User: Fold this.
Amino acid sequence: MNLLDKSTRYYLVYSLFVFSIGSLFFYFSIKEVINDGIDEALHQEKIVLIENLRYEREIDSLKLNKDFYIHTIAGQHKEYDRYSTISFSQDTTLKQTQRQLESVFKHNGEYYILKIRQSLQREEELIDSIIPVGIVMFMILLIGVLMINNMISVRIWAPFYFIMDRLKSYDIKTGEVLHYEKVNIKEFDQLIHNLHLMTSKIHEDFRSQKEFNENFSHELQTPLAIIQNNLENMIQSPQLQEEEMNQISSIMDAVKRISSLSKGLLLLSQIDNNQFPDVTLVDIAAVSKKLVNFFSGIIEDRKIVVIEKYDGSILIRANQALMDILMTNIISNAIRHNIDEGYISIDINMDRIVVTNSGKPLTGDVNTIFDRFVKLGEKKNSIGLGLPIVKKICEASYFTVSYKNNEAEHTITIEF
Amino acid sequence: MKILVIEDEKELRKSVITYLSAEGYLCESAGSSKEAIEKIGVYDYDCFIVDIMLPDGNGLDIIKEIKAKGIEGGVIIVSAKNSLEDRITGLEIGSDDYLVKPFHLSELNARVKSIVRRRNFSGANQVVFNEITVNIDSREVLVNDKPINLTGKEYEILLYFISNKGRVIPKDSLAEHVWGDYMDNADSLDFIYTHIKNTRKKLIDAGANDYIKTVYGIGYKFTT
Assistant:
């Protein structure tokens, strides 16, 4: 339920309440007014009748219609006027309501009882018509409220929905700040202003974070270079003992790991920051062939059979450097996680790349294979950024990548 | 052979000079852009190793200065940034090579040798080590004047070994030299072992001495 529906609902419940109470009140007050009017008329009739009694000797001559009843009563009586509404049925279907004045009065020393009636049928019709009128008015109000709300939502709330759309498509990476001209509605202008401040802040934070990552990565390289170079000078010494060599070797491995990590993370952030913008037609089959040739030594040595299947030249629109890294990672992975005398199948066509390799079953959660620092294989030295880089490149190039394993067979599929 | 190392980081400068001096080069250093420009104006150098980010200026400006003065020496850029832009700019203004920190001293040494070779060769551009002769232009290797058949990577490995002969070469250094960046550590080390094994076997089979020695835990050494 949106905001307008919610407020409309409250309005309508309130209107319904006011209309029901109002109609009832109206009904009774109209009835009251009408009865007063009729009573006044009956009273006038009585006065006229008493006037007439002076001239007429016979009461019977005064009985002009059936709604009229008068005769004398013997003895002493108290004079009164009583107005009432009576209903009776002439037959079974038609019910008639009449207003009656019953009056006892003294005239020329004699007591008379008088009953005058007047039909209420027309008045009742009038009252009855109030209810449909109320309903119709309520319907008109309902339609009006809905139409006005619709208009409000289209016109007045337009900036709000515009902002919502902008927020939905807001991408922190593009570093764009939300801009929108003033609409002269205080709340919206405030919202826009605050969003502007907020996105500026987010953008600024993101930018400084990004800058920090890159600077950190770069600043790390110099101390690493100092360690690495001093170690390299150190190992030239002929006096080193085996124990010392072992220690130096561990330090070198650790330095290498830090260096690879920071390079990998830097590459990931560079892809994120769109620092590989040049898109050309890349022959992915050629890249793959080149890599198979590049790795031919190790492939032969481990007696791995490589089955290549290319649908001619496969030209796709992508960044050359990223495609090189992508294919290097996939093919070197397929070799590394292979078994001796295993196989690799590379199948590339215009729609997709499928690389399948034999290997050992994975241990651990296969769904995390594209996450950073996840190492599911047995190799200890891996830094765990190979597949995350593959995934990042695929995201940046609008490809989809998926992994499937079937016991000892692993398949990476990339769809363009 | 005189080399000027322009690097503001003292420890890095020292280690580079230590390594290259052991190769028989005469090394001098400059810790700032100003000092570098002064030295370039007074002495002659055959090779410059230039850090791009200096506290008082950009290394690229020094290279422009070197080229403007018509100095013949080779230039190797050293940078903490693996920036394609800097690499291209560097090559455009006349530098010969680009190394990203952290680099291996053996790699730097091989690059210096390669530049010196390129600049000094007269007639045949070749490297001779005892019974092994490497023809750089044709990428041909002869053992006792008989050609042997090495793959591209085996050739790279042999040349790298000869450039760093007598030095202990860390295995990472070899791996990076042959496989470049963007290669997972574990892969490159596994892979390099195979290539070295094959290279060594081919050399021995062709009648060369067994120069390639494994240095326990650390790497390899091409013994002299």
Remarks:
- Chain A has ten helices and eleven strands.
- Chain A has three domains: 3-143, 165-275, 280-415.
- Chain A has a mean pLDDT of 83.
- The CA atoms of residues 98 and 122 of chain A lie 11 Å apart.
